[in-house]
Amino acid sequence: MGMNKKTIKDVDLKGKKVFCRVDYNVPFDENMNITNDTRIQATNINKEKAKRKNYFLIGLSSAASVAILVGCFFLLKSYSSVLDPDIATFAVNTKADLPLTEETLLILAEDNVVSLKEKETEITYDSVEIKTNQESIQKEKSAAYNQLVIPRGKRSVLTFADGSKVWVNAGTRVIYPVEFEKDKREIYVDGEIYIEVARDENRPFYVRTKDMNVRVLGTKFNVTAYESEAIRSVVLAQGCVQVETARTPKAILAPNQMFSSADGKENISQVDVEQAISWINGLYCFQSADLGIVLQRLSTYYGVNVEFDPALSKIKCSGKIDLKDNFETVINGLTFVAPISYAYDEQYKTYRVVKK
Predict the structure, then answer these.
(1) How far apart are CA 120 and CA 124, in angstroms?
(2) Cα distance between residue 232 and residue 209, in whole Å
(3) Which of 3, 158, 190, 242 is deepest in the core (most CB within 10 A)?
(4) Given the DSSP bridges, would you call strands 251-253 and 104-109 parallel, antiparallel or unpaired?
(5) Which carries the bigger pLDDT value, residue 199 or residue 21?
(6) DSSP-H helix ranges across the chain
(7) Could you tell me if 208 and 188 are in contact, meaning their C-beta atoms sit under 8 angstroms apart?
(8) How close are the terminal C-alpha atoms of the chain, in Å?
(9) Can you tell me the distance from the alpha carbon of 102 to that of 169, in angstroms, rounded to the nearest whole number?
């Protein structure tokens, strides 16, 4: 590709499945406590080095199949009969008007946009005002729908007046009414959120996306629905959700289950919820994932441009990454355990990753 490859260490993957480990000095215990020191080590599990204490595990194989957390379409009834289409229409009509920004934007009205510079922001709605890290704003200055736009490399926590709390991941847009209606609560998501819905049997809560809806009364779950990606997923942490798609009439998720859909295939599987929602604690966990998807998500989480060789999509990996480490440390660590090399293109401000 006409670039200098930065090769740290080759890993022989020929003819067999190899498990390699990188030690970031991140103790992945049940409480997910993180240490700040960073060091990297690579090892073949078949050799004596495997007895070292390791915290970052990546399994690599040349298998072409990919298992990824992916998406689904959630409905209890048809869209038209359950949800007022106004919020979806608003989402579509306003998306093209969004400015490119490196700051978190709280759009209260066409002429009232609050820019938040912090990497992690907190926004809270109560009965009369909206509170951010920087100021308090009267609700009367807001339009019917508000938007929270999180750029790449940042996250936010949004609390609604009903007590429902939403963790909003990087590269995500959330649209919601400044006041929920008397008979329902409804938001629109383009991206990824984890939400803890305050129970209200008289007002079901709907999370709507371009292709799916989730209806609950009070529960905790993760929704991944980036409109720029073909994959979707919902992971249930607590409570119950009912699922319906064109392929699946009705399915009910129990806690620790994920309904997934990709490439025309849908299934329900058991998952580790703590891994699925680890991003709210500053970790990125993935299991049997396409390395290309991992790189794409890292690009979103860190707010950096990454281009990669399509051949990397044939490599599956599992692991945990401390998002508090800088991107250079993370991509450098991956070269120890994956058959990849990378270089930074200063002109285009892009990391280019290729298969060795």
Answers:
(1) 14
(2) 10
(3) 158
(4) unpaired
(5) 199
(6) 79-82, 86-95, 273-276, 291-302, 327-337
(7) yes
(8) 12
(9) 14
- Give the count of beta carbons closer than 10 Å to the beta carbon of residue 65: 9
> Which tokens sit at 77?
């009834």
**pLDDT for position 86:** 82
Instruction: Work out the number of other CB atoms within 10 angstroms of the CB of residue 116.
Output: 21
Q: Of how many residues is the chain composed?
A: 356
Q: Under DSSP, is residue 214 helix (H, G, I), strand (E, B) or coil?
A: strand
Going along the chain from its start, the domains and CATH numbers come out as: 18-66+284-355 (3.55.50.30), 79-270 (2.60.120.1440)
Question: Is the separation of the CB atoms in 204 and 186 below 8 Å?
Answer: no
CA dihedral for 50, 47, 43, 339, sign (positive or negative):
negative
Residue-wise pLDDT for 224-273, tens only, equals 988 888 788 899 999 988 766 667 767 789 999 998 877 778 888 999 99
316 vs 293: CA distance, rounded Å: 10
**CA atoms of 104 and 121, how far apart (whole Å):** 8
The pTM score is 0.72
Among 45, 56, 52, smallest CA distance to 332 is for 56
d(CA 308, CA 103): 26
